[in-house]
Amino acid sequence: MTERITKSMAKNIYYGGGAFALLIFFALTFDTVNQIPHRSNQQDMTASVVAGKKIWEDNNCVGCHTIIGEGAYYAPELMNVFQRRGGSDEVAFKDYMQGWMAAQPLDTPHRRKMPQFNLTQEQVDFLSDFLIWTSKVNANEWPPTIEG
Predict the structure, then answer these.
(1) Are residues 75 and 47 in the same domain?
(2) What span, in angstroms and rounded, lies between the C-alpha atoms of 79 and 121?
(3) Which 3 state secondary structure label does DSSP give 132?
(4) Using CA atoms, how far apart are residues 136 and 85, in angstroms rounded to an integer?
(5) pLDDT tens profile 20-43
(6) Which domain holds residue 18?
(7) Mean per-residue pLDDT of the chain
(8) Of the candidates 5, 131, 2, the residue with the CA atom closest to the CA atom of residue 68
(9) What is the pLDDT of residues 54-98, one digit of tens each?
(10) Which stretches within 5-135 are classed as H helix?
(11) Is the pLDDT of residue 1 over 60?
(12) In the structure, what pLDDT confidence band is assigned to residue 11 with cuts at 50, 70 and 90?
């Protein structure tokens, strides 16, 4: 004997499923909002970090690079560049960034060329502070490899 779904049963499934999906959505939203303060590293955000983010945006760095997995995949991921190139030493990293940015564009065969942005030393330090701050955001072990 086959049992048919009545209009009443279909309506109950529709409303019950919708309510369940909405409940899950609100629970996940609540969890995400509660996680953000513990993962965002917001307490270490300084004026120089904000200035570095503005330089990042003004020069469209995300047009080539990714940061925390967001952006273009033309150039390397920069979330962990502080650990890769500075060894977690802020002074060494800022010195590295000053040299790297001044040396652009490198004339290396078979390598993509990064443009010369003509940033001041202060602007490069701001950008370095932004990259140092970004490296301390809890991003669930992203990127998966040290080279990004």
Answers:
(1) yes
(2) 21
(3) helix
(4) 15
(5) 999 999 999 999 999 988 888 888
(6) 1-39
(7) 91
(8) 131
(9) 999 999 999 999 998 899 888 889 999 999 988 889 999 999 999
(10) 7-39, 47-58, 81-86, 90-102, 121-135
(11) no
(12) very high
**Is 95 in the same domain as 137?**
yes
Q: In residues, how long is the chain?
A: 148
What dihedral do alpha carbons 19, 21, 22, 23 form, nearest 10°? 80
Using alpha carbons only, what angle is made at residue 80 by residues 128 and 138, rounded to the nearest 5 degrees? 105
Do residues 111 and 104 make contact, with C-beta atoms less than 8 angstroms apart? no
The reply to whether 85 and 114 lie within a common domain is: yes
Q: How many domains are there within the chain? A: 2
Residues 80 and 25 grouped into a single domain: no
Backbone angles phi, psi at 119, to 5 degrees: -80, 150
The DSSP secondary structure of 63-84, one letter per residue, reads GT-EETTEE-SSS-B-TTHHHH
